[in-house]
Amino acid sequence: MKAVVMAGGEGSRLRPLTIGRPKPMVPLVDKPVLGHILELLKYHGITEIVITLQYLPSVIQDFYGDGSTLGLNITYVVEEMPLGTAGGVKNAAAHLNDTFLVISGDALTDFNLQAAVQHHLTIGALATIAVYPVPNPLEYGTVVSDENGRITQFLEKPDWSAVRSDRVNTGIYVLEPAVLDFIPDGTAYDFSSELFPALLQGGERLQAYVAEGYWCDVGTIGEYMRASADLISGKVWLPQPMGETVPAAAFPPSGPDAGGGAATLIEGTRPRGDLILGADVEIAADARIIGPVYLGNAVKVKEGVTIQGPCVVRDYTIVDRYSRLENCVVWRNTYIGETCELLGAIVCRQCSLKSGTIAYEDVVIGDNCVLDENCVVHPDVKLWPNKRIEPGAVVRESIIWGSRGRRSLFGGAGVSGVVNVDITPEFAAKLGSSLGATLPRGSYVVINRDSHRSSRMLIRALMSGLSSAGVDVWDLGEVPVPVARHFIRTHASAAAGVHVRLSPLDQRVVDIRFMNGQGLDQSRASERSVERSFSREDFRRAFLDEVGQIDYPADPTEGYIESFLASVDQDRIRATAPHVNPQIVVDTSHGLCGDTLSTILNLLEVDYLPLNGPMMGALRDQFRHQLQHMAKIMGVLTAGVGVKLDVDGERVFLIDEKGVVLDDLTAALLLLELAMYANPGAKVALPAVLPRAFETVVDRYGGHIVSTQNDLRDLMRAADEDVLFATDGAGHFIFPDLQPVSDGLLATVRLLEYLGPRQAAVSEIVAGLPHFFMAHHRVDCPWETKGTVMRLLNQSYQGDGVVTIDGLKIHFGAEEWVHIGPNPEQPLFEIRAEAADPERATALVKEHGDQLLQWIVATDI
């Protein structure tokens, strides 16, 4: 006997679950809905299967093939246009020469199909319809029959006044081939609304078979959740078990066969209800599981997690520490970050929910979505696939088209994300293609990276994307960022640069940073061009002989060192007799600049002590721990100054001869004092949010200030040839006579150059700097409220004492000011204040923070 499985449904009511997959392929616990139907057919001895397809047919064909792996013989019939339920079966008429079964591929049931067939054959009807009693028949087609089961009437979705039966049409039929003669060829035709009423009117015998067992039409999100819960609760009889079932009394199991054959179940809180396990499951000791719960293959449940059933967590998903899952479904290859809460939600395939994210009841998060930290998704919201929600966003409406709720691809550190979670090789290749599409064919992109193997993996993928767009690559390998920037500036054919590194803030995160043809950070406009290409997948593909080539320049540091030495006063550095030994202690943070800086210091005959040189491929120690350790060393030695560079060679942190770590603002003020002392009347570039002490120092030496935004990119643009020095007060120092970029190596040597003529200890110079008192505060603000708050700010503060740069800077007399600006990457406002004493500065940020909160709350209401 043959069965026709109707699997052409699009499943519009199940969106976004059915975006990219036909309705029968929606995963239901351990397999697609269609998989459960095929297993049921096989169990009842029906192995000759005809599957009718229409929407995304290749998805089903590729997944099941000819059916041989399931012990079935599957034939596919594809509809060129939608033909309806009956029309689709008529389209398969060539394969149907005997009594056959018709069943829907998008319902879940455990009916005795052989009993239905036997009932049909015994009665001798033209068609037998399996009917099932339901509590609320209003959403179904109801079937009315006499005492012998002969059908007398069909009612399609009746209201209560018309209801005459609670038995509904399940979409399971046993038919004789003669039925096909009543179905027109090549046109849309439906069983329940057209064929069966016509047969009934023509006097044909139609029989009702009252089925027993379980049946659910998986047609809505609610029914999908119910079917998932019923499957793991044991309400559905299954031909094959979904995994190893561990009852409450047996958890944690012991012995080699515990938990699906290879699960690691550590002693912890005993679950209540059944726990169904795939293979290689790992459950932490203090995880709390209340069944029924299904955990698929290789699922990892971390410390402090609570899972309260009914819950389904499919294969290769990670539930990170202290998260809580209740009555939810999570598909495969998904990451649930720390302290997340899923309360009645569905999370589809390959999603990443960062720490602190909350998704409420009836939320559906489509495939490949990324929700950054502390997002809140309100009930009934649907996120279509491939959406990215910015940190702290509150999503109250479904997101279907566009990028609403999605952060920019680029942040302050470039393109950042967790290695092999957010930033995968596929992502990097696509990013390379996107950059290449914005550049002329045959132009060069200069790439370099740090020494970690994750960066090497991603840079290779990125190079393949660039080459596919017909762009050539200069691979500098592992060199400091200032060296790479110099190489770009000194090679006219270089159109852009890319640097890949592990983030200095989080070793799980990688940063991909883009530079323009001048070695400066890429402009916002250029970033938007790359992002448009990325989001639209608007890539340029090169022909066979136009694919970009990859070249490896010989020692790019040589040209950098030559230019470097030409930009400093070598005679002054060599002529300055060291009054301490060593002159300087240098810590390069296991970064790439150690060898280059050592070469420069040796050529300048500087007496130095190196610490934490390059460490190939290893994870770096904690930066702040290294800084404190260096301070202790400085307290013991008689060195003149300590300099710690970050791993990229761009930022500098200073320690005086007594082992005191200078805060970032004091270090910046010290470099400014030294530079202005050596070059009176010079012009410097400074952000508007720095303390008035910086103005005092510049005025002391008759200099001039170019005010910039509190943004390194803007600072680089302002650092033209007329500018002596620029700093952001956060460890970045720019000396444009070499190149207008932050260069920690040059800042280190310039420090020595400027200290020589002063003939004073660093601590003495610092003691003579102008005093300042600053306070800093952050106020959380939803993304959608930021614009309103900025409008209220501008309306409330106007006049001569207000400067609109990087937000709003409000002056209160000669000594006090407050700066309020929206953080470009996070849902919050930054408030900075300066006053004559720390108490007053703190009071100012609190006062204005409270005002912001009032506006935010009022706007949110």
Describe the structure.
It is a single chain. This protein has 861 residues and is α/β, with parallel strands linked by helices. It has five domains: 2-217, Spore Coat Polysaccharide Biosynthesis Protein SpsA, Chain A; 243-395, UDP N-Acetylglucosamine Acyltransferase, domain 1, CATH 2.160.10; 425-545, Alpha-D-Glucose-1,6-Bisphosphate, Chain A, domain 3, CATH 3.40.120; 560-767, Alpha-D-Glucose-1,6-Bisphosphate, Chain A, domain 3, CATH 3.40.120.10; 773-860, Alpha-D-phosphohexomutase, C-terminal domain (TATA-Binding Protein, 2-Layer Sandwich), CATH 3.30.310. The strands form eleven sheets. The chain has an eight-stranded mixed sheet with strand order 14-16-19-22-25-28-31-34, covered by helices on one side. Helix 8 (453-468) links the parallel strand 38 (444-449) and strand 39 (472-475). Helix 15 (664-678) runs parallel beside helix 16 and helix 15 (664-678) packs across helix 18. The longest helix has 23 residues, at 838-860. Mean pLDDT is 86; it is low at 248-272, 402-406 and 615-621.
List keywords for this structure.
5 domains, Spore Coat Polysaccharide Biosynthesis Protein SpsA, Chain A, single chain, 8-stranded parallel β-sheet, UDP N-Acetylglucosamine Acyltransferase, domain 1, alpha/beta
Mean pLDDT: 86
The total count of helices amounts to 21
Unreliable stretches (pLDDT < 50, length at least 5) are: 248-272, 402-406, 615-621
Tell me the domain tally.
5
Name the strands of the widest sheet in spatial order.
Answer: 14-16-19-22-25-28-31-34
